[in-house]
Amino acid sequence: MAFDWGTGRYQYITDGELHSCSHWNDLPDQIQELIEWVPEIPPGPHTQQQHDDIERLPEIFMEFLARCQR
Fold first, then answer.
1. Are the beta carbons of 21 and 28 closer than 8 angstroms?
2. Burial class (CB in 10 A: 0-12, 13-18, 19+), 66
3. CA pair distance 36, 16, nearest whole angstrom
4. Contact, 56 vs 37, CB < 8 A?
5. pLDDT at position 2, please?
6. Quick one: which of 3, 22, 24, 32 has the fewest CB in 10 Å?
7. CA 38 to chain CA mean position, Å
8. Which superkingdom heads the taxonomic lineage of this protein's source (predicted)?
9. d(C-alpha 38, C-alpha 6), whole Å
10. Where are the chain's structural domains?
């Protein structure tokens, strides 16, 4: 079974209200604040592709952080 990158725990504020979702694809394009961003990481041992994907997580986080509109 393939691992679904993007599953995890996410909380954000938009329109002054706290929202939660379980996949980063469900985060809206514009948010006020990103409160929680905890993507799931597949259990090891990891393939080289999984290592590459894990190493990209900080870059992906910054892309979501750029959605914040204060």
1. no
2. exposed
3. 16
4. no
5. 66
6. 22
7. 6
8. Bacteria
9. 9
10. 7-65
Residues pairing with 23 in the sheet: 7
Is residue 67 within 8 Å of residue 31, measured between CB atoms?
yes
CA 70 from chain center: how many Å? 19
Specify the pLDDT at position 69: 83
Give the integer Cα–Cα distance in Å for 16 and 23: 21
- pLDDT score recorded for residue 33: 95
- What are the pLDDT tens digits along the chain (70 aa)? 567 899 999 999 999 999 999 999 999 999 999 999 999 999 999 999 999 999 999 999 999 999 998 6
Residues making up the chain, counted from first to last: 70
